[in-house]
Write a structure and sequence with these properties.
Radius of gyration: 28 Å
Helix content: 40-55%
Number of helices: 4
Order of helices and strands: HEEHHH
Structural class: mainly alpha
Strand content: under 5%
Distance between the termini: 85 Å
Largest sheet: 2 strands, antiparallel
C-alpha cells in the first residue's frame, strides 16, 4: 500500500501575533499604561511621552526579535532551575605533603 502525503491548509493569520503598531498588544498596552502612570504621577506630559516612547521602542525590539519573549519570562518563575552555578556545597581542602608521614608540615 503506497502512502500519499497529506496536505493541510494553514492560514498565515493563525500564526501571526496580534500587534498594534508593530508591537505585541500586551506590551503595547503596558507601555501605554506606564506612560499614562508616569504622566499622572509626575504631572509631566513630556515625561509620560518619553516613558511611552522608550517602552514602545523596547517592546518593538522585543516583538521583532522574539514574539513569545513575554510569555517565556512570565512562565520562567514557575519552574525550578536545573543548575545554578551560584549554589554550591562548601567543602574542605586539605593538603597532604608527601615528605612527612604524619601529614603535618614541618
Amino acid at each position: 500500500m503506497a502512502r500519499t502525503p497529506n496536505a493541510h491548509i494553514v492560514y498565515r493569520s493563525i500564526n501571526k501575533p496580534l500587534t498594534i503598531w508593530g508591537v505585541e498588544r500586551r506590551l503595547f498596552f503596558l507601555a501605554l499604561l506606564m506612560g499614562a502612570g508616569t504622566f499622572n504621577f509626575f504631572g509631566s506630559l513630556i515625561g509620560g511621552i518619553f516613558m511611552f516612547t522608550a517602552l514602545y521602542l523596547l517592546a518593538r525590539w522585543s516583538t521583532k526579535s522574539d514574539t513569545q519573549l513575554l510569555k517565556i519570562l512570565l512562565n520562567s518563575s514557575k519552574f525550578k532551575t536545573r543548575y545554578d552555578p551560584a549554589k554550591h556545597e562548601v567543602f574542605d581542602i586539605r593538603r597532604i605533603f608527601k615528605h612527612d608521614k604524619t601529614g603535618a608540615r614541618s
